[in-house]
Specification:
Elements: H1 8-26, H2 32-60, H3 66-91, H4 102-124, H5 137-151, H6 163-169, H7 173-201, H8 207-212, H9 214-235, H10 239-258, H11 262-289, H12 294-317, H13 328-360, H14 372-376
Helix pairs in contact: 1-2, 1-4, 2-12, 3-4, 3-9, 3-11, 6-12, 7-11, 7-12, 7-13, 9-11, 10-11, 10-13, 11-12
C-alpha cells in the first residue's frame, strides 16, 4: 500500500539502507538480546523490499514477459548468497582483528555493502510506467497501451492500494493459491539455503569446504531458473514447468535422504535446489499473471511472499543437528509441502484451462452487454482475458 503512494526509489532505498545499518550494528552486539534486536530490525526492513521489487517489476512488463525478469531478479539473490558464502569463508580469517570476532567482520563488511547498494538504488530505480522519466512521451504512451491491452483494463495505472481493496482481493482463490504455492516453495528453498553447509559437513567434509561447495549449487540453480523462465515466457505456459520443478526437487531430496554415497547425495542437493528455484519465480509470476489491476497484483505478491516467510520458520525447526546425517524428518517435511504445492498447481492449471475453454465457447460473452465503464473494470473476468495455464 505504501509503494502505491511513494516513489519506488524512496521506498526501496530506505528499506535497504535500514537493514544495511541493522546488519552493520549487529557486528557490535555483545549479547544474545542485542543480536536478536538487530535481527528484528533486519527483518522489519527486509520484509517490504522483496514484494515491493516484484510488484514494481510486474508493473513494467506484459504477462508473458514477466517470468524471465522475475527469474533474473531472484538469480541476483542466488548470486548474493554465493558471494555471502564465499565472504563468510574468507572473512572468518579476520577473527581477532581490531578486537572483533570473525562473525562481526562478516556483519561489518556485508552491512557496508548493503548501504552502498541503497545509495545506488536511490539513483537508478525508476518509478512506475505512467511516471517514467527516461521514456519519451510517445514511448510511454506505447508502453501503457501495450500493458492495457495485455490486461483488458484501461484505468488501473493510477490505482492506489487500500486495506479494503487488499482484503477484498484475499477472497479470490487465485490469490490464496499463490500463498500455498509459495509456502510450498519456501520451506525447501530456505532449508537448502540455510542447511546445505550443515548437510555437507555430514558427508565428512570440513566446514570451509562445505561452505565453498554451496556456491556451485546456487550458480547452477540460477542458470536453470533463468533458462526455464525464458522457455515458459516463450510458450506462454506455467503449470507444466511448475509441476516439473516440484517433482525434480522431490527427486533430489529423496537422493539426499536415502543414499549413503556423499557424491550422489551432493548431486541430490543440486537437483533439489534446481527444482525449487525453477518454482520460486515461476509461482509468483504465474499468480500475478492470473489477476488484473494494481490492487490484486500487489496483494497476491505480498500475500505469497508473506506465506513464504512462514516457510522460513518451518525450515528452521525441522533440521535439528541430531537428525543428521540423513535428516529424514526435515526432508520429509519439505517433500510433504512440495506435494501440497503440486496439488495446488494442478488445481490452478485445470481450473484456469476450464475457464479459458468456457470463454472460447462464448459462455462469458454476456458480460460485454454491461455498461462500457463496467466492462473496462471487469479485470480478469473480461471475456477476452485468458488465464495463463
Amino acid at each position: 500500500m505504501i509503494l502505491s503512494r511513494v516513489e519506488p526509489r524512496y521506498y526501496i532505498s530506505l528499506l535497504v539502507m535500514g537493514w544495511g545499518f541493522a546488519v552493520t550494528f549487529a557486528g557490535f552486539c555483545t549479547s544474545f538480546g542485542g543480536l536478536m534486536t538487530a535481527r528484528l530490525f533486519v527483518g522489519i526492513f527486509e520484509a517490504g523490499m522483496f514484494p515491493g521489487c516484484l510488484f514494481l517489476i510486474g508493473s513494467w512488463y506484459r504477462r508473458h514477459q514477466l517470468l524471465t525478469r522475475m527469474a533474473w531478479f531472484m538469480v541476483s539473490n542466488d548470486i548474493a548468497g554465493t558471494i555471502s558464502g564465499l565472504l563468510g569463508a574468507g572473512l572468518g580469517s579476520l577473527d581477532g582483528t581490531g578486537g572483533y570476532s570473525g562473525w562481526s567482520w562478516i556483519f561489518f563488511i556485508e552491512g557496508a555493502m548493503t548501504c552502498s547498494a541503497a545509495i545506488l538504488a536511490f539513483f537508478f530505480i525508476e518509478p512506475f510506467p505512467h511516471k517514467a522519466t527516461f521514456l519519451k512521451p510517445e514511448e510511454k504512451a506505447w508502453l501503457l497501451r501495450q500493458l492495457e491491452a495485455d490486461s483488458q483494463q484501461n484505468n488501473t495505472k493510477h490505482e492506489k492500494m487500500t486495506a479494503k481493496g487488499a482484503l477484498h482481493s484475499l477472497k479470490d482463490w487465485k490469490v490464496l493459491t499463490g500463498g500455498v504455492l509459495y509456502l510450498a516453495v519456501c520451506v525447501t528453498a530456505y532449508s537448502i539455503s540455510v542447511f546445505t553447509p550443515t548437510i555437507l559437513t555430514t558427508f565428512g567434509w570440513g566446514s570451509l569446504k562445505s561452505n565453498l561447495l554451496t556456491a556451485p549449487i546456487r550458480i547452477a540453480s540460477g542458470i536453470v531458473s533463468v533458462l526455464v523462465g525464458i522457455a515458459s515466457d516463450k510458450v506462454k505456459r506455467r503449470g507444466p514447468f511448475c509441476i516439473f520443478g516440484y517433482l525434480f526437487s522431490i527427486m533430489g531430496l529423496l537422493l539426499v535422504m536415502l543414499l549413503k554415497n556423499g557424491n550422489l547425495r551432493y548431486m541430490g542437493l543440486y537437483f533439489s535446489a534446481i527444482g525449487i528455484y525453477i518454482c520460486q519465480p515461476l509461482v509468483v509470476a504465474w499468480c500475478v499473471n492470473q489477476v488484473v489491476g494494481n490492487v490484486k497484483r500487489g496483494t497476491v505478491t505480498a500475500f505469497s511472499v508473506s506465506c513464504g516467510q512462514i516457510g522460513g520458520i518451518i525450515s528452521a525447526l525441522v533440521f535439528p543437528k541430531k537428525d543428521g546425517p540423513y535428516y529424514v524428518p526435515g526432508i520429509s517435511v519439505c517433500i510433504a509441502f512440495q506435494v501440497v504445492g503440486i496439488i495446488a498447481a494442478v488445481n490452478m492449471w485445470i481450473c484456469c484451462r476450464w475457464e479459458n475453454k468456457q470463454r472460447d465457447m462464448g459462455k462469458r460473452d454476456h458480460l460485454r452487454e454491461l455498461p462500457e465503464e463496467e466492462v473496462n473494470n471487469l479485470g480478469e473476468k473480461h471475456p477476452d482475458f485468458r488465464y495463463t495455464t
